[in-house]
Design goal:
Elements: E1 11-17, E2 29-35, H1 39-48, E3 55-58, E4 64-66, E5 71-77, E6 85-88, E7 91-95, H2 100-109, E8 112-113, H3 124-130, E9 133-134, E10 137-138, H4 139-142, E11 143-149, E12 155-159, E13 177-184, E14 186-187, H5 190-207, H6 239-245, E15 252-253, E16 256-258, E17 266-268, H7 274-292, E18 301-303
Parallel strand pairs: 2-5, 3-5, 4-18
Antiparallel strand pairs: 1-2, 6-7, 7-13, 8-14, 9-10, 11-12, 11-13, 15-16, 16-17
Bound molecules: flavin-adenine dinucleotide.
């Protein structure tokens, strides 16, 4: 980093503890954390960064286990300069740092339906990258395009179809940073949209440990989702069910626990390390394989060094 020929306007911090930035509150340090002031700052920084330095864009860490050894990379975390939300007709454009909940609410107030985002605890960059979705609607159903700064520093607009959004995945270029996204949203009555969001929140709170430190669903449902990102709910074999059948509901390892409330949620019950969480997850996979011959696939992304 000594060689950097550009002095960023945003904050560049060495050795930043990533546990502070993830929902699970675990993870070692990033070599550097960069919080760009705006798009021009991010572009100039990436253009000046030596090509052998890895870049890892991070949202609010709601789908991540960062391992205890941390990340040998510059973690890019977008903040205030990237959180604007604009509604114009049926188009909703949101900065990548805008929280999904804020986008859903602001769209609803303007009579536009992006209610599916209301209960997803991430930010828009992570939502696009992961094709976030719930209650039958996904980013793929609404996204028009994403504005992206490539690792080279070049800014480009990528059309939704070129991101090949599929179940919890996209083909975003390696190390590229999404800085904004534009969605198409159907009209709706603001009061009815608000009521639907309240219903969804209540449904979540009743069935998932929403107040616990987790990263959402730990494993994909074994029968998988179709390439459109949609699963046939009625026929799908559920991850929570096979975990239950393997007797792992409530299992503990160090500070990690399989939630008593929903067995596809891996939680930091207090003082867990990333190793506790990942090892317990692997124990679950082993038990499910032994008892039912099913190989569970992680849905939580695990990154960094052990
Ligand atoms: C309680 C709970 C419930 C959840 N329920 C759901 C649900 O119903 N549906 C669902 O889809 N998900 C759900 N999740 C998972 C998670 O919230 C989503 O995957 C979310 O979209 C991740 O967003 P994030 O900002 O936290 O991304 P992170 O977890 O920070 O990152 C996830 C991935 O996105 C990449 N990324 C993040 N920001 C950017 C960016 N600006 N540019 C490029 N890449 C980026 C990261 O590099 C990483 O690969 C849940 C999580 C929790 C904790």
């Amino acid at each position: 980093m000594d060689k950097l020929s550009y002095t960023p306007r945003g904050a560049l911090t060495p050795n930043y503890p990533l546990a502070d930035l993830t929902w699970l509150r675990v993870g070692g340090p990033a070599d550097w954390l960069f919080q760009p002031a705006d798009e021009a700052d991010l572009s100039a920084f990436l253009a000046a960064l030596p090509a052998d330095v890895a870049v890892f864009p991070m949202g609010v860490g709601s789908n991540l286990i960062v391992r205890d050894g941390g990340l040998r990379a510059v973690v890019i975390r977008l903040g205030r300069g990237f959180s604007a939300i604009d509604v114009e007709g049926d188009r909703v454009t949101a900065g990548a740092a805008a929280l999904d909940v804020h986008v859903a609410r602001k769209a609803a107030e303007a009579g536009r339906d992006l209610t599916f985002l209301r209960t997803i605890p991430g930010a828009i960059g992570g939502a696009v990258r992961m094709n976030a979705g719930c209650y039958g609607a996904y980013v793929a159903d609404h996204l028009i395009s994403a504005r992206v700064v490539l690792r080279s520093g070049e800014s480009v607009e990528i059309k939704a179809e070129d991101l090949h959004l599929a179940y919890r995945s996209s083909t975003l270029p390696e190390q590229a940073v999404i800085i904004a996204a534009t969605f198409r949203a159907a009209p709706g009555d603001p009061a009815a949209l608000a009521a639907r969001m309240a219903e969804q929140i209540a449904k979540r709170d009743a069935s998932q440990p929403t107040k616990a430190r987790s990263a959402g669903s730990t494993f994909r449902n074994p029968s998988g989702a179709s390439s459109t990102g949609r699963a046939d709910d009625s026929q799908e074999l559920k991850a929570w069910k096979v975990i239950d059948d393997a007797g792992m509901r409530g299992a503990r390892l160090g500070g990690a626990q399989i939630s008593e409330m929903h067995s596809n949620f891996l939680i930091n019950a207090g003082g867990a390390t990333a190793r506790d969480l990942e090892t317990l997850g692997e124990e679950v996979r082993k038990k499910v394989l032994q008892t039912q011959g099913i190989s569970l696939e992680w849905e939580i992304m695990r990154v960094g060094e052990y």
